[in-house]
């Protein structure tokens, strides 16, 4: 649960009579917060106000114990302990990668903690490209250097504006994997802007949904996803985002065993996805999140031994959503999995099944069922 909400951001910004951005937020002091919403809802303007790049006379911006702005009392951008990663990273083209890093460190006038430099270089996998001129780097390499540079100034807040938008799908997954590593290793709070639910569900712990300059929803990403508050924003309905840890690695079967509160699930090594990039390997006890799409969850009344599905969790039907009965062949079944550990609550899941299946199983609220998970993605 996110209860340490230290960063306070509130302001109203009007560019003209057409657009007004009005926010009042307390955000977690650690982890990744996503600012999500459609084009033109004010995401970039939000970041710019936080960074002090957009003048806003009535803003209150407090980051940890530092007041960055309180009305007309404004701390200049260069005095704010922040790093900003743009859509197209702004590396200095006439320098090589290492010189870019050194330049940023020098400008902070701070002494870098021992080992941090080497650790950041190896975390982002940029040792071999340090001596290369920026102009010779690929889009993904540039973005990795930009992330390293941001970390090396040891900011109190890291802001990222659509950091994947200039990258192709493969590079995007690669950078996502590096950011997941950054998130694990560094406690620096990150606010990132995105209009992709996939990126948000992969990276963000806390989510702010914006619509037309206002905050439409906010909360822990996993809770908003579990309550299906975001279904109208996404192409694929998410059936659940579950927290767990790696309890076993089975190289002979190319599977990771993930222990969730609700039981264990086996997930394949992901050769083509972000998680299996060079330099990133899961280890026993690593904390991970697992995302399951609603269409990959099926429901059965008894424990079926004779099918190929590995992942089966005991659960109870909480609600059957029939509103769209006439509109679609599918309905949503909300489930609460049993918890193997009595102290923890089970996980909320949502299965998308046909109305015909519901009819054949005579499924109703309160029924005990087995949830079968056909496939799932390993997140962070
Ligand atoms: N300096 C400015 N002057 C006038 N209008 C502006 C200015 N900056 C942004 N706007 C307007 O404010 C609104 C919000 O813009 P903003 O760039 O913050 O949206 P966004 O959610 O980041 O959009 P996108 O996802 O397309 O980048 C838009 O209507 C934009 O045209």
UniProtKB/TrEMBL annotation:
Residues 4-237 form the ABC transporter domain. Keywords: ATP-binding, Cell inner membrane, Cell membrane, Membrane, Molybdenum, Nucleotide-binding, Translocase, Transport. This is Molybdenum ABC transporter ATP-binding protein. One of its GO terms (molecular function) is ATP binding. PROSITE patterns: ABC_TRANSPORTER_1, ABC_TRANSPORTER_2, MOP. Coiled coil: none annotated. Residues 306-380 form the Mop domain. The keyword Transferase does not apply. Pfam families: ABC_tran, TOBE. The keyword Transport applies.
């Amino acid at each position: 649960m996110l209860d340490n909400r230290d960063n306070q951001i509130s302001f109203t910004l009007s560019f003209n009579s057409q657009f007004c951005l009005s926010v009042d937020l307390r955000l977690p002091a650690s982890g990744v917060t996503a600012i999500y919403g459609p084009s033109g809802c004010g995401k970039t303007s939000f970041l710019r106000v936080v960074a002090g790049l957009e003048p806003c006379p009535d803003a209150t911006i407090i980051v940890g114990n530092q007041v960055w702005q309180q009305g007309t009392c404004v701390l200049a951008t260069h005095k704010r302990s922040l790093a900003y990663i743009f859509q197209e990273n702004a590396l200095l083209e006439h320098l090589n990668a290492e010189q870019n890093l050194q330049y940023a460190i020098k400008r902070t006038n701070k002494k870098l903690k021992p080992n941090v430099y080497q650790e950041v270089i190896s975390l982002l996998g940029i040792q071999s490209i340090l001596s290369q001129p920026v102009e010779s780097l690929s889009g993904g390499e540039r973005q990795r250097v930009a992330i390293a540079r941001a970390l090396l100034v040891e900011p109190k807040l890291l802001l990222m504006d659509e950091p994947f938008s200039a990258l192709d799908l493969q590079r995007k997954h690669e950078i996502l994997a590096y950011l997941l590593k950054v998130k694990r290793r560094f406690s620096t709070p990150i606010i990132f802007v995105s209009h992709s639910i996939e990126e948000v569900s992969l990276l963000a712990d806390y989510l702010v949904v914006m619509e037309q300059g206002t905050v439409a929803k906010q909360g822990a990403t996993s809770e908003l996803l579990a309550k299906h508050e975001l279904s109208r924003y996404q192409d694929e309905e998410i059936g659940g985002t579950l927290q767990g840890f790696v309890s076993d690695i089975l190289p002979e079967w190319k599977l990771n065993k993930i222990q969730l509160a609700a039981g264990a699930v086996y997930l394949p090594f992901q050769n083509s996805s972000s998680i299996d990039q060079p330099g990133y390997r899961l280890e026993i006890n690593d904390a991970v999140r697992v995302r399951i799409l609603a269409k990959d969850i099926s429901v059965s009344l008894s424990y079926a031994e004779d099918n190929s599905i590995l992942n089966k969790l005991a659960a109870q039907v909480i609600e059957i959503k029939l509103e769209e009965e006439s509109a679609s062949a599918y309905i949503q079944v909300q489930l609460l999995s049993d918890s193997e550990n009595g102290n923890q609550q089970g996980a909320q899941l949502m299965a998308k099944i046909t109305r015909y299946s519901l009819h054949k199983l005579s499924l109703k609220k309160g029924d005990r069922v087995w949830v079968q998970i056909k496939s799932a993605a390993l997140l962070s």
